[in-house]
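User: Run a structure prediction on this.
Assistant: Running it now.
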Amino acid sequence: MWQSACFGSPHAREHAWYHGTVLICSAFGLQAAERSEQWATGTPQFMAIHTLMKRNQDLSSELESLLYVLLHIATGGRLLWKMYRNDQREAYAVKLTAMAVEFEDQILTRIESPLLKAAAIHLQELFFPGNLYYPRVKVTVQAFQRALETASASHSSGSLAD
């Protein structure tokens, strides 16, 4: 339990604590986990592409993972890469292609809600500007929030081109 909750590192558990029923890993614990090189864990279908490539995780990686959770919800669990639960290499290839190259065909066609579709469009543009993943964009919480606010405004005005 400690290992999976604290990014796969036995060192991180020393810096984790419970707050009510929620396990919290401190920033110091995350740094210790990073140094141990055992911390890139998670479910491949929700992992950031950068994490699937076994690169260092950061806040942008966490926000990208949140994007995949939101897409999972928006598509009713019908994501193309959902079958790659234990294979990071295949999940990486399929996810990168779907997000950067075939986003409209592979993702948007599976989203029925106009509001969720608008959010998906704006978040995809944030993480994959010009349909490219590299050079990797460091997404901030503020940028993520602005993309959602822009999606909401474009949905309200009836324009997804905003």
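The chain has two domains: 1-39, 42-157.
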